[in-house]
Design brief:
globular, alpha+beta, 3-stranded antiparallel sheet
Length: about 70
């Protein structure tokens, strides 16, 4: 079974000036990843963000049920 869905994103891909969803600077992305605010996976010397996190931040907020 072949899946074309992307599982990991490079930090550079997430920067909004590069077409990504996160409106932070390059330094902001790397600082957030270093502090643990953005979950990352290290493969060798490279750092990636899991696709589940990217999907989570792109989801619209849920409306309250009792409003």
């Amino acid at each position: 079974m072949k899946s074309d869905a992307k599982k990991l994103y490079e930090l550079q891909e997430l920067i909004s000036v590069n077409g990504g969803p996160i409106p932070l600077s390059r330094a902001g992305i790397y600082n957030a990843a270093a502090k643990g605010d953005i979950p990352t996976v290290n493969i060798g010397r490279r750092r990636f963000v899991p696709s589940w996190y990217v999907e989570k931040i792109l989801m619209p907020p849920l409306e309250p049920q009792g409003a």
